[in-house]
Design goal:
The structure holds 2 protein chains of 2 kinds. Chain A is built from 8 helices and 2 strands, in the order αββααααααα. In chain A, α1 packs antiparallel against α2, α4 packs antiparallel against α6 (about 100-125) and α7 (about 135-165) runs antiparallel to α8. Helices cover about 75% and strands about 0% of the residues of chain A. Chain A starts with a helix and ends with a helix. The relative contact order of chain A is 0.12. In chain B, about 45% of the residues lie in helices and about 10% in strands. In chain B, strands 1-2 form a two-stranded antiparallel sheet. The mean pLDDT of chain B is about 90. Classes of the chains: A mainly alpha, B mainly alpha. The interface between A and B is medium-sized, with 24 and 19 residues.
């Protein structure tokens, strides 16, 4: 454990710096694309963390099933996408055209591409005969039900807000903002699904 | 899936079957090793099909592998 803890610091520190670059700093700083730098740094850090985890003794590694690992990765990346949208609410509400949102869009697209690449690499590196079984299926079905319920709840909330609010309180409603609210709703519903899945794996785990 | 009224003797049967590993059993019945761990820990109730496959892997009738725990 005394070896692992300093090791974890050297993963958490660059990951925190990368997340700070993605979320807090402006998308361009001193001519440098900080979103790309942050996303790249995060992917490298996550990859190093995964590589190190494959070097840890087998019984420790095997506590996480391929299905749980997939949901953890999805949870991290979906959470990051939600955070990117959340941290850029001001930029989104003040945008007049899509061009004003190119920085936010680029960051989200890079995170999604990174998620796809990382998931693919992890799937190839997992040394297991069975990657998914009926337990994964039942957990996924439960998580999907939560995700679906959340999306319905948010959609009804949005419909009620738009339908019953006085017009003067709906000045924020512009097509571009509404589009982002809808995207954010999908992201949040997926995030809830991944949280539920991870909790289920932890409860039913070793 | 956190608690189940279906108990099992999988751990003992693995021992009796020449100390079969969790990975070996998982491979035989087509599940992950973590599901074997969850089954042995009483944290997951298998489907009827999986229960039969596990019993078959030990060459035992299903009621010698799984039993009902009265709530």
């Amino acid at each position: 454990m005394s070896f692992i803890k300093p090791g974890l610091f050297w993963l958490i520190a660059p990951a925190s710096l990368a997340i700070w670059l993605i979320l807090v700093t402006p998308t361009q700083s001193l001519g440098i694309d900080t979103s790309a730098l942050g996303t790249g740094s995060l992917l490298i850090t996550v990859w190093i963390g995964f590589w190190i985890s494959t070097r840890i003794p087998a019984e420790r590694e095997a506590k996480v099933s391929p299905g749980e690992l997939r949901n953890w990765i999805a949870l991290i990346f979906t959470g990051l996408v939600a955070a990117v949208i959340g941290f850029n609410v001001k930029v989104i509400t003040q945008a007049d055209s899509l061009a004003d949102l190119s920085g936010v869009g680029r960051t989200i697209v890079m995170l999604l591409i990174g998620w796809g690449i990382f998931s693919s690499i992890v799937r190839q590196r997992i040394n297991a005969v069975t990657l998914e079984d009926e337990r994964d299926g039942s957990i996924q079905a439960h998580a999907d039900a939560w995700s679906h319920g959340t999306l319905i709840f948010v959609m009804i909330g949005l419909a009620v807000t738009l339908g019953f609010s006085p017009i003067e309180r709906l000045e924020w409603v512009k097509p571009l903002v509404l589009a982002h609210v809808l995207i954010f709703s999908v992201v949040v519903s997926q995030l809830v699904g991944h949280v539920i899945a991870v909790l289920q794996y932890r409860r039913a785990g070793p | 899936v956190s608690a189940t009224p279906v108990g099992n003797h999988i751990r003992r049967l693995r021992f009796d079957a020449g100390e079969m590993t969790q990975s070996d059993l998982a491979g035989k019945v087509g599940i992950t090793r973590q599901t074997v761990i969850a089954l042995e820990g009483g944290k997951y109730a298998p489907s009827l099909e999986l229960a039969f496959r596990i019993a078959n892997a030990f060459d035992k009738p299903i009621d010698e592998v799984f039993y009902w725990i009265a709530p």
